[in-house]
């Protein structure tokens, strides 16, 4: 074997060893970063925005469990609810204390415009008589993609806990405002 062939063989072996070492160092570095910060998915799941979105989804899932429970004025238990009894009962499960009266619950969060509505927001309506006094409250479950309306879960006098749409005549004429109690 000549000097050139020997040198070439040694250099090739060194290059392979160096490539393996660099690859191992890169893998270790990526593993360290992943351990320190988590994967991208884990980082997203740990973000405050994701946690609040998950919290809102948990609130809505809990509220849905009560569909069909009857309405009873002044009630706030799984056997029967009135509108503000329902919202205060649901949010209390998640450590959010709302006033017991619908007219006061609008002050329990940051007011938001109708165009800013998100699931989990509280929406307020006049009671049976159209006027300027809040008499009904529900929880937004879904906002239409085009922003034209929203669905909300609430305790309705005739049907108990149900989901309605803001475009229904009764509610479209009575909408008064909204507030957000779970911030992003």
Describe the overall structure.
This protein is α+β, with helices and mostly antiparallel strands. The chain has helices spanning 3-37, 40-46, 48-64, 83-92, 102-105, 169-172, and strands spanning 76-77, 80-81, 110-112, 122-126, 134-143, 150-156, 160-165, 175-180. The protein has a six-stranded antiparallel sheet with strand order 3-8-4-5-6-7. A two-stranded antiparallel sheet has the order 1-2. The chain contains six helices and eight strands. It is 42% helix and 22% strand. It folds into two domains: 3-43; 67-180, endopeptidase fold (from Nostoc punctiforme) (Alpha-Beta Complex). The model has no long low-confidence stretch (mean pLDDT 85).
Which helices and strands appear, and what pairs or packs with what?
Blueprint: H1 3-37, H2 40-46, H3 48-64, E1 76-77, E2 80-81, H4 83-92, H5 102-105, E3 110-112, E4 122-126, E5 134-143, E6 150-156, E7 160-165, H6 169-172, E8 175-180
Antiparallel strand pairs: 1-2, 3-8, 4-5, 4-8, 5-6, 6-7
């Amino acid at each position: 074997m000549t000097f050139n062939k020997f040198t070439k063989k040694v250099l090739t072996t060194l290059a392979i060893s160096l490539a393996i070492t660099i690859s191992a160092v890169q893998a270790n570095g990526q593993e360290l970063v992943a351990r320190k910060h988590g994967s991208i998915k884990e980082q997203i799941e740990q973000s405050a925005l994701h946690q609040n979105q998950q919290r809102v989804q948990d609130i809505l899932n809990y509220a849905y469990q009560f569909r069909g429970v009857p309405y009873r004025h002044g009630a706030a238990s799984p056997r029967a609810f009135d509108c503000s009894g329902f919202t205060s009962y649901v949010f209390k499960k998640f450590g959010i204390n709302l006033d017991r009266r619908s007219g006061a619950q609008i002050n329990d969060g940051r007011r938001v415009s109708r165009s800013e509505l998100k699931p989990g927001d509280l929406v307020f309506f006049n009671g049976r008589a159209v006027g300027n006094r809040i008499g009904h409250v529900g929880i937004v479950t879904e906002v239409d993609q085009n922003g034209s309306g929203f669905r909300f879960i609430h305790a309705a006098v005739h049907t108990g806990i149900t989901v309605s749409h803001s475009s229904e005549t009764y509610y479209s004429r009575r909408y008064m405002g909204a507030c957000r109690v779970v911030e992003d």
